[in-house]
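Notebook B, p. 112. Complex prediction, attempt 2.
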Amino acid sequence: MVDDTEIYLDECPPASPLGHILALRSSVEDNNEPPYLSMDSINDVTIYLTHACNLKCRHCYLSAGKPLSGELNVDDWLHILDKLRDLEVKYVYLLGGEPTLLIKRGLLRIISHAKDLGLYVSMSTNGTLINRENALQLKRAGLDQVQVSLDGPNPAVNDVIRGFGSFNKAIRAINVFKEVGIAVSLSYTVIPDNAYYVTDMVRLTERLGISVLTFIRAQEFGRARENGLSLSDELARMVINDLMRIRLTSSWS
Ligand code: SF4
């Protein structure tokens, strides 16, 4: 059954904040809901904190790995957050690379400064570096929502794409985030290798008690392009049909 899980298909550029914002809205009390998107101002800003990543996913849109020369430092980001507040931005979405690589090098300051400015803060992570201690630090800094990337419903599918051991570490992170009270959503980048497992992924998401799962069609960027991992229209249609079938055979609406 998919009673409680909301599924999104996302064909925006790789770092669409849509799933984060919707997950955030569904995670808070009615009387404290973050605002819906407005056409009158810039609503959300995606901040690429670093190009560094500890994984080498085969479809990585950035070909992430080592940090770029001249990456901004913490003070630069705090200044930029001040400017974003002046522009009435409501949401910031922290992305990399892997943002948690910066957890001892300013990430917590960036989050707490954004919160002091009244912004909602989401972060995307591969989850592999998360433990209870740093999850609590993220919570105390004010992180509102986190999106964990998984590209398969089990290690056999996920780890071929994201690296050995990454599935179990991501599951551990999901459970730790839930324990410390940070709202969690999942994202699944669809490539030919994992396109046949989307319904299994929905089932896993439900078992994990996660209410938002976003499917992202791999874009022609970075290693996805180098490795020829774009999704054909035929496979994309199959994915949509599979997801629609789940919807039709359950009470999900
Ligand atoms: S897709 Fe994400 S986790 Fe994977 S290599 Fe790229 S930045 Fe790192």
